[in-house]
């Protein structure tokens, strides 16, 4: 049975993400989170019945169109979801009537999204509904949707309208022209075309009813063909609607409408289609799954991110690639960045190499666009676009519109200066080749890309005659906070140097192994001996701003002369440093959006090439990490920091950064998940687990593990494909196996539920607020708030009522005022059984005591309980930025006690607290049922009758088991 973890918004199991309550304020975020797809298309998690303000989208690889004058973007394709249900004249919609029960699940193992709703209409009709949808992985042109509806307390007429919406919008712009539509046996079809790129799309749909008899009618409003039926349903009887669709575009077939109709006519029933889909997912997960034991939230988060990569990867098309926001939203217009080759590609290279091949072949098919860009700027060879679409031409917008309507438009310099992408692509190609030994692909595709981009570098690099060295001026490195007058960026210069070295190797290899192809490329690209000599000269003399005496690498020439910065001075904050300082202010300071020098070290880590080694890494880590805006800068940073932190033995920091990457979309930690999945972060997460925590390095005989498992992880299992062979890794933690716990010198107590129980006071405070605001609340509802923040608790109580942010803040403050008044009544009598005796015994044995509570009222409660003289340190809600399940609170408490993690034991009663203690690498005692605290080393019902000797004996027993 899967373990479960409750988070702020979901229940996590090993394979299933479960949303238990519908929150309209998170509508767009959840549309992104519940995206499904199959490598050909993806569909956001919008509701079948529609919802006000929704942003439904189905995006198909390569279906780009222009917004005149402005930009090129992926076109939102016709919406296949619409399913309207009208019950005795009342339309089912979540913003109407009453939601009695709600649950939405994304089953990652099966690639199926489902939703169960019990809904009562305004007239009092109660209806159970279960929706299910999938985008077939067995046949990428097939989509399936099923709705099962059961009247609970009425008999009535239900009208169904199953439609195709041919008027989808990209946030206000419709890319489609209606051409035609019609009906077929038990179905309908639609034919549309993009306005500028002239891509045709055909979609066909059929509807089947089970559990009742009813006829189908077709209504043909232009652009909105609909299948309609009406039937009578009785209480307790279930009627099933099965909607199956096929979709093709003129990019893959000449007649997409006819192809869609023919395919639909040949398809088996819904159940058979779903079974075939599930079988393919089994095969995919067999290669790509990662098993984590000891951390259910991490297990689900890793699988979720891999799922989002797998559904975005083209399985049968080498002319498209994965956009930065995958196919899950409108962010970055569906453009392809370096994110794909550097962050996403390794996952596919080592688990699904055929898909990695497709992603790289896209770059071959866009070489002509890269050549046009180089020519436009006056250079030779191929200069890849910073943002690419279908042709490879540069599609980065030249200007960005500021939020302030009176401010000047913002010039986007990436298209002109962030040129390292040409070397990044070469890097991805090289490492794909090393891992797969795919000589045929390298001969036919990869070599030309590497060589033609090397020609570009030969024309872009400048000779500094004064210093007798080559330089690259006016660039943007990985860190985009600095975009003006950046010369000799260390990342760019070293990756270009590396690129030229590999280009020379590839040319020699091609000449020796495939002389005919080498001769063809030599003629086509004009690869003269003089040109190759120049590459060699540049590679030998390109300047890298590196101080050999200190090991410190200067991010770019003059970076150390910028004004230094202490990021702690700006805490707490909820915005990026560029927003706080302004574009010009950030550019004048030593503050980074994301790793730059450290990114270079990471890229050289796999092959252990200059400048990577442990000493240089530590020196530059110590300098650049404190200056990196890792929380609100770029989402590309946390995964890289996590891997390098693992290399340095910084397990706590590595796990913190891992969590940032893992939860960036699930928990919307940056507040921008509405624009789509952070694809680079998802790919970086796989690298964090495999290369960081698994410690994978590659030698002549293949991959070798040197694991650094995070505290609490008992097992890490994965597979890697290397040069035609599969390598399986089953890494297990040695913690708690055969060793005696160290001499514990400190005990950290959670407060609520361990030493006292303030649930009653919270209940009274919330009840008073609810009564004043006319909201329904009860003791049972209060129990559901355990572990939630004040804001999340209020949102649960408020339900669907809407309040201004000012009102929400006022209500939170009012509740806290009532709570502070209530806790004035706390006295020593409120200590839980066994608590005082254990505190006194610890004092007798010289064991230090700390409180580790997320409450901001902890000091008041400790004083009222009369135990302040028995407590050495209080770590509370004011002490750290990240609360449980992050380990920060307990690590802070240990630091204040003057102890290390291994010398501390934590006593907790909540899942998040146990997880935080384990992440801090501390011994853990859980109070309560095993389903809540079972991950702890020792589980007890309470502290009643428990002595210090008892706790030590139980820990000793656990360790030697």
Describe the structure.
This protein has 961 residues and is an alpha+beta fold. 36% of the residues lie in helices and 21% in strands. The chain contains 29 helices and 38 strands. The chain has an eleven-stranded antiparallel β-sheet, with helices on both faces. Strands 35-34-33-36-37-38 form a six-stranded parallel β-sheet, with helices on both faces. Helix 25 links the parallel strand 34 and strand 35 (873-875). The longest helix has 24 residues, at 490-513. The radius of gyration is 30 Å and the shape is globular. The relative contact order is 0.07. Residues 736-740 have low confidence and may be disordered.
Strand content: 15-25%
- Round the mean pLDDT to the nearest integer and report it: 93
What does the largest sheet look like? 11 strands, antiparallel
Spatial order of the strands in the main sheet?
1-2-3-11-12-13-14-21-18-17-16
Give the helix/strand class.
alpha+beta
Overall form: globular
Structure, briefly:
The protein has 961 residues and is of the alpha+beta class. It contains 29 helices and 38 strands.
Features:
961 residues, alpha+beta, 11-stranded antiparallel sheet, 29 helices
Give the secondary structure arrangement, pairings included.
Elements: E1 4-6, E2 10-13, E3 16-19, H1 27-33, E4 36-37, E5 41-43, E6 58-60, E7 64-67, E8 71-74, E9 83-87, E10 90-91, E11 98-107, E12 112-120, E13 126-135, E14 142-151, E15 156-163, E16 176-184, E17 187-194, E18 200-210, E19 217-221, E20 224-233, E21 239-249, H2 256-266, H3 270-288, E22 291-293, H4 296-310, H5 339-351, H6 353-365, H7 367-376, E23 399-400, E24 410-411, H8 414-417, H9 421-436, H10 439-460, E25 462-464, E26 469-471, H11 490-513, H12 515-525, H13 529-541, E27 546-547, E28 552-553, H14 577-587, H15 597-605, H16 614-624, H17 637-647, H18 651-662, H19 679-693, E29 697-699, E30 702-704, E31 715-722, E32 725-732, E33 746-749, H20 759-773, H21 779-783, H22 790-798, H23 805-823, H24 835-844, E34 848-852, H25 858-865, E35 873-875, H26 888-897, E36 904-908, H27 911-919, E37 923-927, H28 930-933, E38 938-940, H29 948-959
Parallel strand pairs: 33-34, 33-36, 34-35, 36-37, 37-38
Antiparallel strand pairs: 1-2, 2-3, 3-11, 4-5, 5-6, 7-8, 9-10, 9-15, 11-12, 12-13, 13-14, 14-21, 15-20, 16-17, 17-18, 18-21, 19-20, 22-31, 23-24, 25-26, 27-28, 29-30, 31-32
Helix pairs in contact: 4-19, 5-6, 5-9, 5-19, 6-9, 6-10, 9-10, 9-11, 10-11, 10-13, 11-12, 11-13, 17-18, 17-19, 18-19, 20-23
């Amino acid at each position: 049975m899967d373990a479960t973890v409750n988070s702020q918004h979901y229940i996590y199991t090993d394979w299933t993400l479960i949303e238990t309550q519908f929150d309209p304020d998170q509508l767009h975020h959840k549309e992104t989170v519940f995206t499904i797809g199959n490598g050909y298309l993806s569909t956001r998690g919008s509701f079948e019945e529609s919802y006000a303000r929704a942003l439904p989208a189905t995006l198909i690889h390569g279906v780009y169109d222009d917004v005149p004058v402005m930009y090129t973007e992926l076109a939102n394709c016709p919406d296949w979801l619409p399913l309207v249900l009208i019950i005795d004249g009342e339309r089912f919609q979540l913003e109407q009537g009453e939601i009695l029960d709600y649950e939405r699940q994304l089953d990652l193992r099966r690639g199926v999204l489902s939703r169960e709703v019990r809904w009562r209409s305004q007239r009092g009709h109660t209806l159970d509904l279960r929706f299910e949808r999938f985008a077939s992985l067995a046949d990428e042109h097939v989509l399936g949707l099923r709705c099962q509806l059961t009247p609970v307390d009425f008999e009535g007429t239900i009208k169904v309208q199953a439609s195709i919406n041919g008027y989808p919008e990209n946030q206000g712009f419709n890319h489609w022209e209606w051409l035609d539509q019609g009906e077929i046996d038990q179905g309908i079809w639609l034919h549309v075309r993009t306005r500028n790129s002239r891509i045709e799309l055909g979609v066909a749909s059929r509807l089947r009813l089970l559990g009742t008899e009813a006829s189908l009618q077709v209504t043909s409003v232009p652009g909105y063909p609909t299948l309609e039926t009406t039937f009578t349903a009785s209480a307790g009887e279930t009627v099933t609607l099965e909607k199956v669709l096929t979709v093709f575009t003129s990019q893959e077939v000449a007649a997409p409408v006819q192809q869609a109709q023919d395919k639909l006519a040949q398809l088996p029933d819904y159940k058979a289609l779903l079974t075939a889909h599930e079988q393919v997912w089994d095969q995919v997960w067999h290669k790509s799954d990662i098993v984590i034991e000891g951390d259910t939230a991490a297990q689900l988060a890793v699988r979720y991110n891999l799922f989002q990569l797998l559904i975005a990867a083209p399985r049968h098309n080498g002319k498209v690639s994965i956009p930065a926001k995958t196919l899950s939203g409108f962010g970055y217009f569906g453009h392809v960045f370096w994110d794909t080759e550097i962050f996403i590609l390794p996952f596919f290279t080592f688990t699904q190499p055929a898909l990695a091949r497709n992603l790289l072949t896209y770059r071959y098919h866009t070489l002509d666009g890269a050549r046009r860009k180089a020519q436009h700027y006056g250079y030779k060879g191929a200069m890849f676009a910073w943002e690419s679409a279908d042709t490879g031409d540069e599609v980065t917008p030249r200007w960005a519109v500021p939020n302030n309507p009176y401010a000047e438009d913002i010039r986007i310099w990436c298209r002109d200066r962030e040129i390292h992408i040409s070397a990044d692509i070469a890097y991805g190609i090289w490492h794909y080749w090393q891992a797969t030994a795919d000589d045929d692909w390298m001969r036919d595709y990869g070599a030309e890309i590497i060589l033609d981009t090397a020609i570009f570098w030969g024309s872009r690099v400048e000779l500094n005659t004064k210093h007798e060295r080559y330089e690259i001026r006016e660039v943007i490195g990985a860190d985009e906070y600095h975009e003006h007058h950046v010369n000799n960026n260390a990342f760019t210069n070293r990756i270009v140097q590396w690129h030229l070295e590999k280009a020379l190797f590839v040319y020699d290899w091609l000449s020796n192994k495939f002389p005919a192809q080498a001769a063809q490329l030599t003629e086509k690209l004009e690869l003269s001996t003089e040109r190759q000599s120049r590459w060699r000269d540049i590679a030998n003399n390109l300047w890298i701003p590196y101080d050999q005496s200190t090991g410190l690498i200067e991010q770019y020439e003059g970076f150390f002369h910028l004004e230094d910065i202490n990021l702690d001075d700006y805490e707490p904050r909820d915005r990026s440093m560029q927003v706080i300082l302004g574009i010009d202010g950030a550019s004048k300071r030593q503050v980074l959006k994301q790793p730059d020098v450290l990114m270079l070290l990471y890229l050289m880590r796999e092959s252990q090439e200059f400048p990577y080694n442990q000493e240089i890494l530590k020196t530059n880590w110590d300098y650049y990490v404190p200056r990196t805006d890792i929380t609100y800068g770029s989402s590309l940073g946390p995964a890289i920091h996590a891997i390098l932190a693992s290399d340095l033995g910084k397990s706590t920091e590595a796990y913190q950064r891992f969590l940032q990457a893992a939860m960036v979309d699930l928990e919307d930690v940056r507040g921008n998940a509405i624009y789509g999945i952070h694809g680079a972060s998802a790919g970086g997460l796989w690298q964090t687990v495999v290369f960081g925590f698994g410690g994978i390095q590659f030698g002549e005989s293949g991959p070798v593990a040197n694991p650094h498992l995070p505290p609490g992880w008992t097992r890490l299992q994965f597979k890697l494909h290397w040069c035609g062979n599969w390598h399986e890794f089953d890494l297990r933690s040695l913690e708690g196996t055969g060793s005696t716990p160290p001499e514990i010198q400190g005990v950290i107590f959670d407060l609520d539920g361990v030493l006292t129980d303030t649930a009653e006071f919270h209940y009274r405070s919330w009840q008073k607020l609810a009564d004043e605001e006319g909201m329904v609340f009860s003791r049972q509802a209060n129990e559901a708030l355990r572990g939630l923040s004040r804001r999340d608790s209020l949102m649960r109580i408020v339900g669907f009522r809407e309040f201004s942010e000012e009102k929400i803040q006022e209500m939170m403050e009012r509740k806290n005022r009532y709570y502070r008044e209530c806790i004035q009544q706390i006295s020593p009598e409120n200590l839980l059984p066994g608590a005082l005796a254990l505190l006194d015994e610890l004092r007798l044995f010289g064991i230090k005591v700390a409180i580790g509570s997320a409450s901001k009222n902890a000091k008041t409660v400790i004083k009222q309980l009369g135990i302040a003289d028995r407590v050495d340190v209080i770590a509370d809600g004011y002490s750290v930025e990240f609360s449980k399940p992050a380990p920060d609170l307990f690590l802070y408490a240990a630091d204040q006690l003057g102890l290390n993690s291994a010398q501390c034991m934590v006593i907790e009663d909540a899942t998040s607290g146990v997880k935080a203690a384990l992440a801090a690498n501390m011994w853990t005692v859980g109070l309560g049922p095993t389903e809540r605290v079972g991950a702890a080393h020792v589980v007890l019902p309470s502290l009643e009758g428990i002595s210090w000797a008892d706790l030590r004996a139980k820990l000793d027993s656990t360790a030697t088991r």
